[in-house]
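Sequence design from tokenized structure. All designs in this work follow the same two-part layout: the structure record, then the generated sequence. An example of the structure record is given first.
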């Protein structure tokens, strides 16, 4: 049997069996591997790091999309930076938004996802409300005059093509493209292994937004089984409305989500003290979750 080995962290590896390789080639920007796994179905790998699987991608996509949209409550226009697989776009379009603009640097990722992973986007690219642009997301944000209610940064980790999407200058540019009451969400890696990444994202967002809150989503195929995201807006409370408010807004999604619920929304912002191993408990970076609070 052939195995794929991911090495996100220097001292940790995870392996997935490859029943069959559907595609493996290098685009202009990154190495793309798509294969079948008996447990998780089709798996998309970019530059050696698992991005999604058929079986559990809905958790990540629902939590990065529905948390800011439900917290906002009346978003009309949404911007997605990255997200070439179309999973976040699919979730955004479950809301009564007027437009969803997706800006993806690597157009081949869109084409390959539509070809090999059509279930992930499920027709979202063909929705008349979707506006798909193949270009640098930082350049789009810097040059566009369009305004948005929610911005979702559905990028790879801050290395290679995704690195420019994690800078203070980019977050400031995003802030200028948000209407009053607007919100942004940024994926922030595996918190157990990448606490410094979460700390950096939170600190840099704090330079442009008054309210910044990390939250968590359990995704089995990500290293450590947990994904960290950071939401930001005008206030911390706005990002985590009361359960009653969320339940009223949830009517537009009822029976259309597999993981997200109002209760899950609230619980995701309740953080444990730390994900650091006991031997690193005195490492300031590793203690970032303790510092951020719930």
């Amino acid at each position: 049997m052939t195995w794929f080995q991911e090495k996100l962290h220097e001292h940790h590896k995870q392996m997935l069996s490859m029943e069959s390789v559907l595609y493996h080639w290098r685009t202009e920007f990154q190495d793309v591997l798509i294969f079948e796994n008996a447990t998780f179905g089709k798996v998309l790998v970019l530059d050696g790091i698992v991005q999604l699987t058929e079986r559990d991608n809905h958790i990540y996509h629902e939590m990065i999309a529905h948390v800011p949209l439900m917290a906002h409550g009346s978003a009309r226009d949404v911007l997605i930076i990255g997200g070439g697989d179309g999973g976040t776009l699919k979730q955004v379009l479950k809301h009564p938004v007027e437009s969803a603009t997706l800006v993806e640097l690597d157009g081949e990722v869109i084409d390959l996802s539509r070809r090999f992973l059509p279930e992930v986007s499920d027709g979202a690219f063909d929705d008349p409300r979707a506006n798909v642009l193949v270009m640098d997301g930082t350049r789009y944000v810097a040059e566009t005059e369009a305004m948005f209610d929610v911005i979702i940064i559905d990028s790879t980790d801050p290395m290679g093509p995704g690195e420019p999407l994690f800078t203070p200058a980019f977050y400031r540019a995003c802030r200028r493209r948000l209407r009053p009451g607007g919100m942004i969400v940024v994926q922030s890696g595996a918190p157990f292994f990448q606490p410094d990444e979460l700390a950096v994202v939170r600190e840099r967002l704090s330079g442009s937004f008054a309210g910044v809150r990390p939250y968590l989503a359990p995704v089995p195929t990500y290293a450590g089984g947990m994904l960290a995201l950071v939401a930001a807006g005008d206030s911390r409370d706005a990002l985590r409305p009361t359960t009653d408010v969320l339940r009223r807004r949830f009517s537009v999604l009822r029976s259309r989500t597999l993981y997200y619920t109002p209760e899950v929304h609230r619980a995701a912002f309740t953080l444990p003290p730390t994900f650091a191993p006991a031997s690193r408990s005195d490492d300031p970076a590793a203690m970032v979750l303790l510092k951020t609070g719930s």
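The first strand starts at residue 2 and ends at 9. We note this feature because it recurs in several other targets discussed in the main text.
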